């Protein structure tokens, strides 16, 4: 647990290490490994050192907070004042916002160190971090494999220790899937727990900020900082303060705990090693006194399609503002006609995956199918809510396979285990639960009821303690 | 027009709401500011910025709905209406398509009843400034709150259309909903017009005429479009459903090439904004804030103050004037004289568009009292009010520099009369010999004799007295 917020906090406060040493240590790691990994899009070194100095002042005056001096990476769809925010797209190649996302403001108040901006699938559309306009991000356990996505830069960077923790975003599995592929811990909190202000949207009713760390405890620490109420986001829930570490500090009793399993997810189209690994997690809890409850959920097989028909129409409208005249993109006038100019520049600046999803979204909207998909989404939500009324949490594989080869044709199905809970707006947490015979990480996913993040962390933490982690091969 | 045909009109009216701030951000809505000086990431549609609804706009929409006898919905929400245009920063307009805030209203007028289909809240687009050499966009207007009032196709005469629009503007001014300035674009009227066979319930195909900048153009456009459509029908052709413009110079409507309609508007719910939930108690509270409406006020003037209908109309037709009248009456209760002086003397200086009648009310009341006591001639009121209202000179100073005061001192007047009679013995003799017409000559000479204003009643009496006396003397 050396590269954890928990540990570094202690070291920094005891002055065993200075913020500058720590920051330089991470900059060195980035220098050494990121050329191979392709996690970072933009690093402002001078600013990193400046932030470290400020953090040290706070520590010296015994004014340190949870994140003071902690080096963190930020997914590039989270707006950072004075630092380019590209969404991995040519369309935003030179876009530097003059405002911060609310979560950045919250962390700046604590004098965190922003190492830089992390690569992602273009406009968070993709599950491989290969659709970025700028670079391809690799998996630290096998450089020939994808890190997952869309928050692939965030997961790969934490996994390879190019930052202590990272922020990402999740719409249909963009946190949990790359966390599983890269052998790290990732949480997509309940929709409405964390302000979305300044996070460039994909589908507004599903998007949520996500966190990637090395352990569940750090997730709890970050949630406590990031869930501060923001009046700028109407959809944020007004909650009384939650103690996210409640069930880690005072371990939860597994005995009698009801764990639900959607058996459809373990039945079809799943890699056998993944299945075995997740079953061993279930066995662990069972042997500690938990009761396993099996559920059947046939609609889970269609959740990817429901997601496509539900998220992409929203995505289409969110991408409409990119007409090429704004946000740092250099507009090229090819015609007297406005529409033709817009069409030309959008064609130039959007990548294939984005175009594909625009077409899907347009088709659904033009055909008038959107309400149907919205209804399907409600059905999925209702079924999850029913299951969670009968058990404490659900456990399932985070993905049905491990990270695949980059030039392998992208299997569209790697989100099938997580997308359902995303549609339901539920919190989900992925932690590593093993490795396949090639040493590639496997993730297990914990899904809880709304705003039950603390419980998820507590339950997952018990297994996490027993888990023998293997360092990424990049360090071998 | 063919005698068997009749026109059917529906109106779509966009009224800018008089809120301090824009609909979804805190930028000012003030008209006439420097180009692009009232903008922020939210109203410019910057990536990641989130809208937050301005509750003042909701209150004004409730008031508008209430004035038009609408049902105020307990649930309404926002949708995105998508199209590409350079004045639309997000590529969609936030509006209320599916669930508008108000529905099913009506307004009873002298020329008939106008039925209201719906009122919904939406944001205004930016303003395109087209010069000969460049196209600029001023985003100050982007995000200014609007309500759109949609009537049923139920208006069968120009008179009713005119009366409806005029009344709507006046009522909105009274309730501070909208300043009703057609020339500034804060109140915009679109006309839907079609011809149908009399006695038939089936409506003809309609054309929509946009951008009518005055009531005059509205009426002209109705004539022009009725003419055009009857021509089309006469020739055995069919009217095309389309959007047309109105050319003030030629007095004709013309087809607007409307590419944006090639695709639908792809309405989709805006998930960033919470639904507007209105409790009955709240709606009633807002309704209670609506001041007395012009029609009720007119009746009140007639009944309570015994003012004739024509005068009452003049007073209520300008909100500023009616407020001034009310304020005067609070200070001095002579409604007859006050209304008379306002209407016959003051109003010729007053511009119809004023928001407040700027005149020193205490001076004005003092003036009224002087007129009432016949200390001042009514014929001087025009001049005095010119100095008071146009030149903003105080009543004291006006009297210092001019002689408007009437002398009622009988001794003084008798002195003047005697001296005039003595100086004009010839004329006196003519009068004595029966030339009564010469009386006016004496009056004039008396007034010329002094720079004071003489009370004409007293002057007349004394003059008559003295001439009578003289008569006797001559005879003897
Ligand atoms: Zn603004």
Question: Total number of helical segments of chain B?
Answer: 15
Task: Give the neighbour order of strands across the main sheet of chain B.
Answer: 2-6-7-10-1-11-12-13-14
**How many strands, which pairing sense, and closed or not: the largest β-sheet of chain B?**
9 strands, mixed
CATH topology heading of the domain at 5-248 in chain A: Amidase signature (AS) enzymes
Please give a structural write-up:
- The complex is a heterodimer of chains A (476) and B (476).
- Chain A starts with a helix and ends in a 12-residue tail after the last helix.
- The mean pLDDT of chain A is 95.
- Chain A has helices at residues 5-13, 19-37, 45-60, 102-108, 152-159, 176-182, 216-226, 246-249, 263-267, 272-287, 303-319, 338-349, 352-367, 370-390, 419-423, 453-464, and strands spanning 40-42, 71-75, 113-118, 165-170, 185-188, 208-213, 258-262, 291-295, 393-397, 428-435, 441-447.
- Among the domains of chain A are: 5-248, Alpha-Beta Complex (Amidase signature (AS) enzymes), CATH 3.90.1300; 305-366, no CATH class.
- Chain A has 16 helices and eleven strands.
- In chain A, 39% of the residues lie in helices and 13% in strands.
- In chain A, α11 packs across α14.
- Chain A is globular and about 70 Å long.
- By secondary structure, chain A is of the alpha/beta class.
- In chain A, strands 1-3-2-4-6-5-10-11-9-7-8 form an eleven-stranded mixed beta sheet, sandwiched between helices.
- With 476 residues, chain B is of the alpha+beta class.
- Chain B folds into three domains: 5-286, no CATH class; 292-404, no CATH class; 407-466, Orthogonal Bundle (Arc Repressor Mutant, subunit A).
- Chain B has helices at residues 55-67, 158-174, 215-234, 280-288, 294-305, 309-316, 319-331, 335-346, 361-372, 381-390, 395-401, 410-423, 425-432, 439-449, 456-475; strands at 5-16, 71-72, 75-76, 79-82, 92-95, 102-109, 112-123, 127-130, 135-138, 145-151, 187-197, 207-212, 242-247, 252-255, 268-269, 276-277, 406-407, 453-454.
- In chain B, α3 (215-234) links the parallel β12 and β13 (242-247).
- Chain B is elongated, with a radius of gyration of 31 Å.
- The A-B interface holds A 77-79, 85, 87, 92, 95, 97-99, 101, 196-201, 204-205, 231-235, 313-314, 316-317, 319-323, 325, 327, 338-339, 342, 362, 365-366, 370, 374 and B 41, 45-53, 80, 82, 84-86, 89-92, 259, 263-264, 266, 268-274.
- Bound molecules: zinc ion.
- Residues 22, 25, 27, 39-40, 42-43, 143 of chain B line the site of zinc ion.
């Amino acid at each position: 647990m050396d590269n954890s917020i928990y540990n570094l906090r202690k070291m920094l406060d005891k002055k065993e290490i200075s913020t500058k040493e720590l920051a330089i240590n991470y900059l060195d790691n980035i220098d050494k490994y990121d050329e191979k990994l392709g996690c970072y899009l933009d690093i402002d070194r001078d600013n990193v050192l400046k932030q470290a100095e400020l953090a040290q002042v706070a520590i010296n005056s015994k004014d340190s907070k949870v994140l003071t001096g902690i080096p963190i990476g930020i997914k590039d769809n989270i707006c950072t004042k004075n630092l380019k925010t590209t969404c991995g797209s040519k369309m935003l190649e030179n876009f530097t916002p003059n405002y911060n996302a609310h979560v950045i403001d919250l962390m700046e108040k604590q004098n965190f160190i922003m190492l830089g901006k992390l690569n992602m699938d273009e406009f968070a559309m993709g599950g491989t971090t290969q659709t970025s306009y700028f670079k391809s991000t690799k998996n630290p356990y096998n450089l020939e494999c994808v890190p997952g996505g869309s928050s692939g830069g965030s997961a790969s960077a934490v996994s390879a220790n190019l930052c202590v923790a990272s922020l990402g975003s999740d719409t249909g599995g963009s946190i949990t899937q790359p966390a599983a592929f890269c052998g790290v811990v990732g949480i997509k909190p309940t929709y409405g727990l964390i302000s979305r202000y300044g996070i460039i949207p994909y589908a507004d009713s599903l998007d949520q900020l996500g966190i990637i760390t090395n352990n569940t405890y750090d997730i709890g620490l970050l949630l406590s900082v990031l869930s501060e109420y923001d009046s700028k986001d109407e959809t944020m829930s007004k909650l009384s303060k939650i103690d996210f570490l409640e069930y880690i500090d005072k371990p939860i009793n597994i005995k009698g705990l009801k764990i639900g399993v959607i058996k459809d997810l373990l039945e079809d189209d799943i890699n056998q090693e993944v299945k075995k690994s997740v079953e061993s997690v279930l066995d662990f809890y069972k042997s500690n006194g938990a009761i396993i409850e099996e559920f059947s959920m046939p609609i889970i097989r269609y959740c990817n399609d429901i997601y496509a028909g539900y998220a992409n129409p929203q995505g289409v409208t969110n991408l409409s503002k990119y007409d090429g005249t704004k946000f740092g993109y250099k507009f090229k006038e090819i015609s007297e006609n406005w529409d033709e100019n817009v069409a030309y520049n959008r064609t130039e600046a959007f990548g294939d995956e984005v175009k594909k999803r625009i077409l899907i979204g347009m088709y659904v909207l033009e055909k008038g199918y959107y309400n149907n998909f919205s209804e399907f989404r409600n059905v999925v939500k209702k079924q999850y809510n029913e299951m969670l009324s009968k058990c404490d949490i659900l456990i399932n594989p985070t993905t049905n396979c491990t990270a695949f080869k980059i030039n392998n044709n992208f299997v569209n199905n790697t989100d099938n285990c997580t997308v359902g809970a995303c549609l339901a707006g539920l919190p989900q947490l992925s932690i590593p639960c093993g490795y396949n015979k090639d040493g590639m990480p496997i993730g297990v996913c914990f899904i809880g009821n709304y705003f039950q993040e603390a419980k998820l962390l507590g339950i997952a933490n018990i297994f996490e303690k027993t888990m023998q982690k293997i360092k990424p091969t990049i360090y071998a | 027009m063919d005698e068997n045909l009749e026109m059917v009109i529906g109106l779509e009216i966009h009224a800018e709401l008089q809120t301090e701030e824009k609909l979804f951000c805190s930028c000012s809505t003030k008209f006439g500011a420097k180009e692009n000086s009232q903008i922020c990431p939210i109203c410019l549609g910057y990536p990641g910025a989130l809208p937050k609804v301005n509750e003042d706009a909701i209150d004004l929409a409730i008031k508008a709905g209430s004035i038009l006898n609408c049902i105020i919905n307990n649930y309404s929400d926002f949708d995105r209406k998508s199209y590409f245009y350079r004045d639309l920063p997000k590529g969609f307009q936030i509006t209320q398509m599916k669930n508008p805030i108000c529905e099913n209203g009506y307004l009873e007028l002298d020329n008939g009843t106008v039925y209201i289909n719906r009122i919904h809240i939406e944001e205004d687009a930016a303003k395109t400034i087209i010069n000969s050499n460049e196209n600029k966009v001023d985003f100050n207007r982007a995000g200014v709150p609007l309500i759109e009032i949609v009537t049923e196709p139920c208006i069968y005469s120009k008179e009713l259309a005119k009366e409806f629009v005029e009344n709507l503007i006046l009522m909105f001014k009274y309730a501070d909903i909208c300043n009703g300035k057609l020339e500034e674009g804060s109140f915009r009227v679109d006309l839907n017009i079609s011809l149908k066979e009399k006695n038939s319930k089936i409506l003809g195909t309609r054309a929509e005429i946009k951008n009518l900048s005055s009531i005059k153009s509205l009426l002209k456009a109705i004539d022009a479009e009725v003419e055009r459509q009857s021509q089309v029908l006469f020739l055995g052709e069919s009217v095309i459903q389309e959007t047309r413009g109105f050319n003030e110079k030629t007095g004709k409507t013309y087809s607007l090439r409307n590419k944006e309609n090639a695709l639908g508007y792809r309405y989709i719910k805006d998930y960033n904004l919470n639904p507007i939930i209105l409790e009955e108690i709240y709606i009633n509270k807002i309704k209670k804030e609506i001041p007395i409406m012009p029609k009720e006020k007119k009746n009140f003037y007639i009944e309570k103050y015994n003012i004739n209908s024509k005068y009452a109309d003049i007073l209520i037709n300008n909100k500023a004037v009616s407020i001034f009248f009310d304020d005067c009456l609070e200070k001095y209760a002579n409604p007859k004289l006050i209304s008379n002086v306002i209407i016959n003397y003051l109003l010729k200086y007053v511009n119809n568009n004023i928001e407040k009648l700027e005149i020193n009310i205490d001076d004005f009341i003092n003036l009224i009292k002087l007129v009432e006591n016949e200390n001042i001639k009514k014929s001087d009121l025009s001049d005095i009010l010119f100095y008071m209202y146009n030149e903003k000179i105080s009543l004291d100073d006006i009297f210092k520099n001019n002689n408007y005061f009437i002398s009622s001192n009988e001794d003084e007047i008798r002195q003047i009369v005697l001296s005039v009679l003595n100086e004009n013995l010839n004329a006196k003799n003519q009068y004595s010999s029966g030339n009564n017409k010469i009386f006016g000559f004496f009056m004039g000479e008396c007034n010329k004799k002094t720079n004071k204003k003489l009370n004409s009643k007293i002057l007349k009496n004394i003059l008559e007295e003295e001439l009578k006396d003289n008569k006797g003397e001559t005879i003897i």
